[in-house]
Design brief:
Blueprint lengths: L4 E7 L3 E7 L6 E8 L3 H15 L1 E8 L9 H17 L3 E5 L3 H11 L4 H24 L2
Parallel strand pairs: 1-4, 4-5
Antiparallel strand pairs: 1-2, 2-3
Helix pairs in contact: 1-2, 3-4
Length: about 140
C-alpha cells in the first residue's frame, strides 16, 4: 500500500469534515471539522493536517445527484480539490457520497446525540464514512 495515510474529506460550503486512515489503510478516524473561511486558509489547514499525519493520498466525497449526475455542488467540490491538488501535489480520488450525511445523522440520532452536538460532528462523521467506505471497497 502507501507509506502514509489516506485522508477523507467531506467538503461543504460552510465546513470541511476531515478523517484519516490508520497506517495500514484499514480504519478511518475522524480528525476535525474545519470551519470554512477562505480557500487559502482552508487549504493551509488541510496542508497542516497532511504534514502532521503523513497523508499520501486523498479521497473526497462527491455529492452526486440521486440520478448519478454531477450538479453545482459537485462542481464546487471538484474545483476546491483541484486547488488542493495543485497546492499539495497529492493525488485526489472521488467517492460517491450520496446519502452519507443522512447515514451520519441517523447514526448520531440512534446514539442519542443532541441536535446541538450533532451539528458539531456530523461533517467529521460523514468524512469518516466516506473514507471507511472507500477503504472497505479497496480491499477487494
Amino acid at each position: 500500500m502507501l507509506d502514509g495515510r489516506i485522508m477523507g474529506l467531506d467538503v461543504g460550503d460552510r465546513t470541511i469534515g476531515v478523517a484519516v486512515s490508520d497506517l495500514m489503510g484499514i480504519t478511518a478516524q475522524g480528525v476535525t471539522t474545519i470551519r470554512r473561511e477562505s480557500k487559502n486558509k482552508d487549504i493551509e489547514e488541510l496542508k497542516k493536517i497532511i504534514r502532521e499525519r503523513n497523508v499520501k493520498y486523498i479521497v473526497s466525497g462527491l455529492p452526486k445527484n440521486m440520478n448519478g449526475t454531477i450538479g453545482p455542488q459537485s462542481e464546487k467540490v471538484i474545483k476546491f480539490c483541484n486547488l488542493l491538488k495543485e497546492e499539495t501535489g497529492i493525488e485526489i480520488n472521488y467517492w460517491d457520497e450520496r446519502l452519507t450525511t443522512v447515514s451520519a445523522e441517523k447514526m448520531l440520532i440512534d446514539g442519542d446525540v443532541s441536535r446541538k452536538n450533532r451539528k458539531k460532528v456530523i461533517d467529521k462523521l460523514a468524512a469518516v464514512l466516506i473514507l471507511q467506505n472507500y477503504l472497505d471497497f479497496k480491499k477487494f
